[in-house]
Amino acid sequence: MKLNLIGLLFGVAFGGVLAASNLHEYDTIHAMLRLDEFDVFWFMASAIAVSAPLLWLLERRRVRTPFGGDLVLSRSKPEKHHVQGGALFGVGWAIAGTCPAPALVMVSSGAVLGLVAIPGIFLGLHLRERQQKSGAHVGDGEHRETVVVPG
Amino acid sequence: MFDLLPDRLAWYVGGPILGLLIVGLFAIANQPLGASGAYVQTSGLIRRMPNVVTWRVWYFVGMFVGGVLVTQVLREGAEIRSGYDALRDVFPLWAVVPLVFGGATLLGYGAAVAGGCTSGHGMCGTAQRSPASLTVTATFMATAVLTTLALRIVTGGDL
After folding, report:
1. Residue A55 maps to a domain
2. Total domains, chain A
3. In terms of pTM, does the model score above 0.90?
């Protein structure tokens, strides 16, 4: 139960930061991908620059997390599906000018076509799930699936 | 409602805050802050699948609520609009809707194949220094820039 509240709070904070940075706007993503404006690249780079060393430190200290056991970072080797999926994602991202989290904020901000983008994302994820059967944890990015998180 | 936030938060403020959120969730739950994963779990809940990770559904809801909080409450409040004015200047609405839907479907499918999106791989994965995430991120950045360039050429520089 507590973890649900934590999930909600992290969602509010994440969505709030994206909204405050205008990452839900088509124009922001479009300007980034046209290489007219580098703010979003810097945004992502600075997020990584802050989190990477801290994560490294926490892992080295073998921090025990309250909900997920010992903190373990994942460093998978690249496989074919990473390149294939990434390539398709990039094409869709450029056309729709949004990605999963910003699409939600798009709707929050009153942009009606976000209601077209969100079902599209659901459909795309679902099509893959139907091909594969094992849908668990798909989409979380890099992490170990051995960690069982109770609701 | 209120006009408390700047028109756009500077990247050197927003980026580091996001970085701390990433560290925070790892420190609490040993999990990445991936948005596509939240879609997958939400879709599982809607279809009444077993083993839904409920906190990721709450995370999905939270992202929407956070957007409302910032765009409608802390800022003056945005009006109902398409959100795709730049696309609508170039294409008629009957073309914009399938374009957005098709693009979104493609990115959803790609995220599922890659196992994550801009958040799960692009930020949380690279922050873990995962070679797989670095590969995904480099690939989608490259194809996104190339696709944008292609759209620009096709539209004669209008987009």
Report:
1. no
2. 1
3. yes
Stretch A40-66: mean pLDDT, rounded? 96
Give the domain extent around A106: 2-50+78-132
Residue A11 located in a structural domain: yes
Which pLDDT value is given to residue A138?
67
> CA dist B77 to A107, A110, A111, A134, Å?
13, 9, 12, 41
Which tokens sit at B44?
């599982």
Across the interface, of B22, B104, B144, the residue whose CB is closest to A51 is B22
Look up the ipTM and state it.
Answer: 0.96
Q: For B42-99, how does the pLDDT look when each residue is reduced to its tens digit (9 = 90+)?
A: 999 999 998 899 999 999 999 999 999 999 999 988 789 999 999 999 999 999 999 9
**8 Å CB contact of B113 and A88:** yes
Measure the CA–CA gap between A23 and B121, rounded to whole angstroms.
Answer: 17
A57 domain-assigned: no
Nearest-Cα residue of chain B relative to residue A37: B11
The answer to whether residue A66 is domain-embedded is no
